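stage 2 :: seqdesign
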């Protein structure tokens, strides 16, 4: 099924992005490639494109941030996160203080909105009462 890391010459882009832990799942990596948020050596990164050591991958992240990684090794099997980080060299520019603050605010906002969750029966009744229904 999968091959040894040293024996591979190339792996599908979406598979490599998943194995390298740059995306949570292969399908998420495939969607990013199809949406044009991933490029390989300056060209659009199609999900089926083969990635080889030496390729440079640019990934568009939220808030206009770009993550740039250089492929060091390829693997088509899931690896522990520590080993997965050895598959690439991160060449992304250091984020500015404004970018760090934007990401911190986004994380805080998401945590608050997720904590609110779905209202229970008592809260729904209170909302209906407020709306006048």
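stage 2 :: out
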């Amino acid at each position: 099924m999968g091959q040894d890391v040293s024996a591979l010459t190339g792996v599908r882009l979406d598979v490599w992005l998943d194995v390298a832990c740059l995306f949570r799942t292969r399908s998420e990596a495939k969607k990013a490639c199809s949406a044009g948020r991933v490029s390989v050596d300056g060209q659009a990164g199609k999900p089926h494109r083969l990635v080889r050591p030496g390729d440079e991958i640019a990934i568009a992240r939220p808030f206009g941030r770009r993550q740039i990684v250089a492929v060091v090794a390829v693997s088509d099997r899931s690896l522990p996160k520590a080993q997965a980080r050895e598959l690439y060299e991160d060449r992304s520019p250091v984020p500015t203080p404004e970018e760090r603050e934007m990401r911190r605010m986004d994380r805080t906002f998401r945590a608050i909105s997720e904590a609110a969750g779905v209202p229970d029966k008592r809260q729904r009744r209170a909302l209906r009462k407020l709306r006048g229904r």
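stage 3 :: structure notes
- The CA atoms of residues 25 and 40 lie 19 Å apart.
- The helical segments are 13-19, 26-34, 81-84, 97-116, 121-131.
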